[in-house]
Design brief:
Length: 585
């Protein structure tokens, strides 16, 4: 089946809906959203703590302070043009959401409530500041609902439960790459659809399911990053993957940083507030990479809690019941439901959980997809949110900056995509644009291979957790390179037993395993190549940050002539008013 829209958005989370909503404000273009899930099930709904914006409703704050915290939090790999645009624009974006009807928590004077969050400070690092605008601990859920309602109101067309299988990218007469649409599987029927578009916005989220313990939904399997990478196009800064310090022990379900923003304290088995040793100025509100490493060190040195000494404790028991249950209702319910622990009375067992990709498809500050490290574009293609890398987050994202990223750069990508589509025409499609996608489906359905995709996924998640997680070495990552080559070879021998068309989850999950393997390949190669420690990339064999050699972005390309080989290039960091300094909190 064939469809044609001026602007096509892939993904219906916060960045996708923001892109679609602002593209639809251009009445000269038609806009459609293609989503793997029903929109309000998108993973933005799992975000809890807030949107960082320097409103100054509780105490004095300025966008320059927010920009500084973003750059410093990103360990100076953040592109400072993106950070400046972001810190300024996110203020207006929060008020836009408020005017759309988003039910923010309120201060007694009626203004949007704000609370402290990790890495957010006043006066360029002197003390924590209340910057996170929140809706109890359901901020992402409220953003998702609000933007979906506004997009429906604006007349955006939705194609729900469609899984993208291919991007239609070709070289034009001048040798420039151009995107002409996507090919997708309608999950409910098994039918292959071609979506012809003047411009496409990719907003399909991250790939946390490459790890065993993760806060990410089952749907976050790096589909669009993989498809981009398969075409010989680059993925930027994949070595930087954030582990959130406070996942529910064993399960990885997120406990918001807002719990520490409200006064929660991290403790080891002896009850010590151990973050005083690692970040004496802002303690439990240090950036996530630092807190996760501190937790790992406490566990490794034998100060973990429980029978197996494999978790630490988040203590909220000193806070009033009305704070815990009133401002953190979801995490209170999670702790009671999944652990049988009442956080009002007992500390909550926690351990770091794979949470967020700082890297992704490289883009300009307007969301234009980059074809290389020299600024050449894939014409007509845009990306925003976690699938993208505008390099706002650098080597480590600050809490709340993901929701801000969605609304600021989702909006910019949507506006840019609509403007491009308004002045463009429908590029001619290749003769059989769905040929590759149909071939992949046929290979999995009719193959006689004996490998099982679920078994490969399990081995991938376990080995990535062991070899490419919070701490890394040449030995562990080199081992993972060989593991991934073996898993990629085995994946070619995967077939599915279910050959039906409707809701064939065995088929869709097998496709997702292939995507995860691709992204893990690029991530591991990027991490092995970067011989320094910076932000979330912590190498025990190269423990220091090396600005002289490594103040640059990694661009990882699949070597199309040698399967399993990754080519590494670089892109300069955009510097500005904040010169790289030692990262002390």
């Amino acid at each position: 089946m064939h469809h044609r829209y001026d602007v096509l958005v892939v993904g219906a989370g916060g960045s996708g809906l923001m892109s679609a909503l602002y593209a639809s404000k251009n009445k000269n273009v038609s806009v459609a959203v293609l989503s793997k899930l029903y929109p309000t099930r998108s993973h933005t709904g799992a975000a809890q703590g807030g949107v960082g914006a320097a409103l100054g409703n509780v105490s004095e704050d300025h966008w320059e302070w927010h920009m500084f915290d973003t750059v410093k939090g990103g360990d100076y790999l953040t592109d400072q043009d993106a950070a400046e645009v972001f810190a300024k624009d996110v203020i207006d974006a929060v008020y836009e959401l408020e005017h759309m009807g988003l039910p923010f928590s309120r201060l007694p004077d009626g203004k949007i409530a704000q609370r402290k969050f990790g890495g957010h400070t006043k006066e360029f690092g002197k003390a924590p500041v209340e910057r996170a605008c929140y809706a109890v601990d359901r901020t992402g859920h409220m953003i998702l609902q609000t933007l979906y309602q506004q997009s429906v109101k604006s007349g955006v067309t939705f194609f729900n439960e469609y899984q993208v299988l291919d991007l239609i990218i070709e070289d034009d007469a001048l040798g420039e790459k151009v995107c002409r649409g996507v090919v997708a599987l309608e999950i409910s029927t098994g039918e292959i659809h071609t979506f012809h578009a003047k411009s496409v916005v990719l907003a399909a989220g991250g790939y946390g399911r490459a790890f065993k313990v993760t806060s990410n939904a089952l749907s976050l399997t790096g589909d669009l990053m993989s498809i981009y990478y398969r075409k010989g196009l680059p993925l930027e800064d994949l070595e930087f993957y954030q582990f959130h310090p406070t996942g529910i022990a064993k399960l990885g379900i997120l406990i918001t940083e807002g719990a520490r923003g409200e006064g929660g304290i991290l403790r080891n088995d002896s009850g010590e507030r151990f973050m005083e040793r690692y970040a004496p100025t802002i303690k439990d509100l240090a950036p996530r990479d630092m807190v996760s490493r501190a937790i790992y060190m406490e566990l490794r040195e034998g100060r973990g809690a429980g029978k197996d000494k494999d978790y630490l404790l988040l203590d909220l028991t000193h806070l009033p019941r009305e704070i815990v249950e009133g401002r953190l209702p979801d995490i209170t319910d999670f702790a009671r439901t999944y652990l049988g622990v009442d956080p009002v009375k007992q500390p909550v067992p926690i351990q770091p959980t794979a949470h967020y990709a700082m890297g992704g498809i490289p883009t300009s500050i307007d969301g234009e997809a980059l074809a290389d490290g020299n600024g050449n574009l894939v014409r007509g293609l845009y990306a925003a949110g976690e699938v993208a890398c505008v390099s706002l987050h650098g080597a480590n994202r600050l809490g709340t900056n993901s929701l801000g990223d969605l609304i600021v750069f989702g909006k910019r990508a949507g506006i840019a995509a609509a403007k491009y589509a308004e002045g463009a025409h429908f590029e001619e499609l290749p003769a059989r644009p769905d040929a590759f996608a149909k071939g992949e489906i046929e290979r999995l359905k009719s193959g006689t291979g004996t490998e099982n995709a679920a078994r490969i996924r399990k081995e991938l998640q376990e080995t990535m957790m062991d070899n490419v997680s919070i701490f890394r070495t040449d030995e562990t990552m080199s081992r993972q390179v060989e593991v991934l080559k073996e898993l990629q070879a085995r994946y070619k021998n995967v077939s599915v037993h279910d050959t039906t068309a409707r809701y064939n989850t065995e088929l869709t999950e097998a496709l997702e395993v292939g995507y995860l393997l691709d992204v893990a390949e690029a991530m591991t190669a990027s991490a092995l190549n970067r011989k320094e420690s910076r932000g979330a990339h912590a190498r025990e064999d190269y423990p220091d940050r090396d600005d002289e050699s490594w103040l640059k972005h990694t661009m990882a390309y699949r070597d199309l002539s040698r399967p399993g080989n990754v080519l590494i290039g670089y892109k300069p960091v955009v510097l500005g008013r904040f010169e790289p300094k030692p990262r002390v909190y």
